Amino acid sequence: MPSQAIVRSVLVAVLGLCALAAAPSPDSRAPRADVSFWVNPDTSAARQAGAWLRQGRFSDGWALARIAVRPQAEWLSKDGPEPVVRSFVRRAAAAGRTAVLVTYFIPDRDCGAYSAGGARDAAHYRVWIDRFAAGLGAHGAYVIVEPDAVALAVAGCPGADTDERYGLLAYAVDRLKRQPGTKVYVDAGNATWIPQVKRLVAPLRQAGVDRADGFALNVSNFHTDAVSVEYGHRLARALGGDPHFVIDSSRNGNGPYAGAEPWCNPPGRALGTAPTTRTGVPAVDAYLWVKRPGESDGTCRGGPVAGGWWPRYALELARNSRI
Q1: How many domains does the chain have?
Q2: Positions of the chain with pLDDT under 70
Q3: What is the pTM of this model?
């Protein structure tokens, strides 16, 4: 059994890495003014890594630190967002960093699938967005607006009022953009969900993308950066103007899975590009870890409920990683 002094030293090292992780790192891609994203030291990954290190599982603990020391998005999916948002952005600002947040409360969220839930109705959602925005104050953040909401509506979401949904998304964009320093990206699905990008143009415009900072791609999915960049450029051309986008690279290190349900806890995946705004691609504002690695996609392949922490899956992602 390792001594308490050794365990304590290892834990201190991990916490030190957490403090450094959001800082710009050397990158061979084209230079860009880098935004340092906030690393929450109290994520499930950080707590699990610490627990394993205390138990003497040093190999597993250090592997999981690959997740724990990197910035990840904070998802807001329940009532009462204001104090939670305020806490995140204030802690990020105190560290000289920028928080990445996700609004995930649109009515009929996920069309009743694994991540069902959301606001009771349109009025409830508008109040919720108002409180979210109030929590931001003047600190600013990167905000991803409602993953899957547009693509689900385009693909077909029985029972959802699509015009109302797009109107609520536009309300969210406009309200959040009133907060100083806040960058807002409307989620646009992934590279294979709606292959014909023209089908997304009118819905995204109704959802306020022209007044946002751009759109988000690959949230909770596994397509490679290259595939997402190519798709993003096609969508940007279809939208016209000069829209920018961000890409979720959290779990795309080995690309997509070829078997059934490739989007739901697929085996053999790996962590992808670490979060950065130094993308080397003018239209790509950032690679982000929007989906938190190690959190389940749903009760498939033995996983816990959507969003539930799954240590075994997190460890697989980390061990397969090349970062």
Answers
A1: 1
A2: 1-34
A3: 0.91
